[in-house]
Predict the structure.
Amino acid sequence: MLLRNATIATMQPGAPYGLLHGAVLIEDGLIKWAGPEADAPEGGEDMAGRLITPALIDCHTHVVFGGNRAAEFEMRLKGASYEEVARAGGGIVSTVTATRAASEAELLAGALTRVDALIREGVSAIEVKSGYGLDRETELKMLRVARAIEGERRVRVRTSFLGAHAVPGEYQGRADAYIDEVCLPALEAAAAEGLVDAVDGFCEGIAFDTAQIERVFQRAKTLGLPVKLHAEQLSNIGGTRLAAQYGALSADHVEYADAADAKALADAGSVAVLLPGAFYTLHETQAPPVQAFRDHMVPLALATDCNPGSSPLASLLLTMNMGCTLFRLTPEEALAGVTCLAARALGLKDTGVIEAGKRADLAVWDVAHPAELSYRIGFNPLYRRIFGGEA
């Protein structure tokens, strides 16, 4: 496949976007060559100046879950805080009840509706977390469903074990016992089944403290699994620095991170994943310290955080716009955040940029310039998605 006469955002380091007027040659599922139009081989398909980018990557989602939380959305609009909803037995725990009750087939059918929405926007890879089971069997069930997505759709899936997401009702007031009796054994079982690509946790006052998360990270290290962390979303209790200490792939949310956290991430080579959908839905006012991340050269990724409670968002294009309007990212930063840097947040080294030898996961857009992808609201200009060299 040869796509020619296109504007190409290679997302390689260097000039802004790595823009060039050129062509891309695809062979055996890989990018064989990408370069100036004048150097392109003969033949191929004329893209009429359309934009070609790496296919998009959603590096933080919770798309496998049962039920919905529209009632809690209404509660928050009437003044209840996220913490108040959670402490009243709602929040994550309410989704746990619905997810435990759902069959694998029901969970897969629901997840695919959300995955399809992402695919329609040029997404080729997604991360999917467990964390709505909070018991061994349901955590494993969720991860099996996440793995099954690849068999139903042309999309890559990376799984994260999120057993340390919340303390279930039967363990209220006994978080340490939950870690010992449920979370760690479930992680061992999931790893034994080959269901886990990374290990995550929710380090927050309403969830788990740093000492509890560190025990999970220690077990992940023993199993040879990389870690990532929901950190500093609602307060600063040291999660980001703990994640950095363990060389985490990413620290996610990070609204309450500070300059010391930014330096720790930079030193560790970890990505900060910004999740404007949750910030928007929860009416938060503390924005992540984007300038501190820039100052310390921390890679900034963007993701939907698609979940039933705090971010019922299944549009990565809207996420890009939110990243710019709410967090003041530039359109270039937003595009990098859903391509090359999102790949880095998942540990994917074969995708996210347009260069010879990478997977031919591409998106062709009916736009003239990459900034249009962040500029428009509620508009999908995707012309074609190419996955593994096939349209």
Notes: The chain has a mean pLDDT of 96. The longest strand covers residues 19-27. The CA atoms of residues 147 and 157 lie 7 Å apart.
